[in-house]
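Response to reviewer comment R2.3. The reviewers asked that we include at least one raw input/output pair. We reproduce the pair for OmpA-like domain-containing protein here without editing.
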Amino acid sequence: MTFRFPAIAALGGLLALGACTDPGGLNDPNNPNRNRDQGVLLGAGLGALVGNLAGGDTEATMAGAVVGGLAGGLVGNELDKQERELRASLGDDRVKITNTGDRLIVTLPQDILFATDSFAVRPDLQGDLRAVSRNLQSYPNSVVQVIGHTDNTGDAGYNLDLSQRRAGAVANVLIASGTSSARVETVGRGESTPVASNLSPEGRALNRRVEIVILPTA
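Raw output as returned:
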């Protein structure tokens, strides 16, 4: 019972940290601490759930929330920092970086990576992939999924194989540039997960892509 009040106080501090900017800060894309704040709140919620399942009482729930909130805040801070450094190191503004608060997604349009029907990475894009690899080496506490996607033009089986080959080609550049192969997983999804309509040339171009998904492990 002696833990109850420190836990409640600490949880209150975490929630205050999550709202320390302004009431709409979590939804403000210009808030530099948005992902840290989201990490605090999400981590606190998950930690509270785990604590409740583990102990079933107020003390365990609060303890879980405190630990989870601290861990979530640290992950959010680290991702924000990694994102800033990665953006500064890339030389092509067509490469898109999305920070969801729990992962970074680097999206490379197929048309800047490969010639038509090819899975050989264009020489001018290898420099950006080497920059991604250097960034990954600076932040070793993560695993990396390299995921290939196509539009729906042509045979679905061919598209699946091509997406796998292209994911493998990008992964090979990352590994050859120093990223540990043990951290890297390649996935081909073919035409199965479009992000836009395949009914227009513009939509098909968005669907032809390779994503490098950086998932923190600590």
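Confidence is low (pLDDT under 50) at residues 1-5, 14-23, 63-72. Residues 33-84 form one domain. Further pairs are available on request from the corresponding author.
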